[in-house]
Amino acid sequence: xxxxxxxxxxxxxxxxxxxxxxxxxxxxxxxxxxxxxxxxxxxxxxxxxxxxxxxxxxxxxxxxxxxxxxxxxxxxxxxxxxxxxxxxxxxxxxxxxxxxxxxxxxxxxxxxxxxxxxxxxxxxxxxxxxxxxxxxxxxxxxxxxxxxxxxxxxxxxxxxxxxxxxxxxxxxxxxxxxxxxxxxxxxxxxxxxxxxxxxxxxxxxxxxxxxxxxxxxxxxxxxxxxxxxxxxxxxxxxxxxxxxxxxxxxxxxxxxxxxxxxxxxxxxxxxxxxxxxxxxxxxxxxxxxxxxxxxxxxxxxxxxxxxxxx
Length: 310
Hints:
With about 300 residues, the chain is an alpha+beta fold. The chain has eleven helices and seven strands. It has a three-stranded antiparallel sheet with strand order 2-1-7. It has a two-stranded antiparallel ribbon with strand order 3-4. Helix 5 packs antiparallel against helix 6. The radius of gyration is 23 Å and the shape is globular. The two termini are about 35 Å apart.
């Protein structure tokens, strides 16, 4: 979770929790983690709370981290604190929870290292012009990753392909290198997040063949419009509205039809955005086809896509 402009505990993803009964257990399924928030936040927002909690804990000195305000990935929203929230206490509570569901000290230590790596990736300075790019980075970054600085630099500043069984590398521009760094940070956070969910499920799930009853809880984020809206936000809103329409059709609409059929007055009022969802749904396949059919590098394809009449 992270501090949102409207709430302090926005999930930034869809989570389905299944509570199993007889025998007791459960498992968590996550969808569409909003990983873009790892590298940028809107004004008045924080990144995921865990970063600030880690810095507020005793792990800060162990990992040689600085104050949250020093990190590009944490200060973009202009705020690093949440009123009424004690980040250090929240961290200690999280550790207790991890211990309760079976995470070892070594596993937790590796998690904290990965979070530190994500923050340090945001501090990498990309210098140079054209295809001549140089990186200035904290020496701790390579140490935490377990790789030489030269290997890390080569990986971040080159696009490596395997063609005809042979590996070839072409240099990236300054902008492409920055995109590669941000992409790596997002991917590392997402994979760690998914691994945590997987490990929790391994420790708390009951044998599915023996479960006699379940209770499902679907937690989704709300429809949001910001000053600057990314394509990712569009996908999130589309997914949210599609789920909302499914909920309406399976509950409210079905109940309304039954009331009307029996001549009973129907009091609840609800708004349906089915027409908007249908329009987007009908256009999506065509839009993605246009995007994928442009025979240019991804960034050029996106620019052409945004200008296309689809």
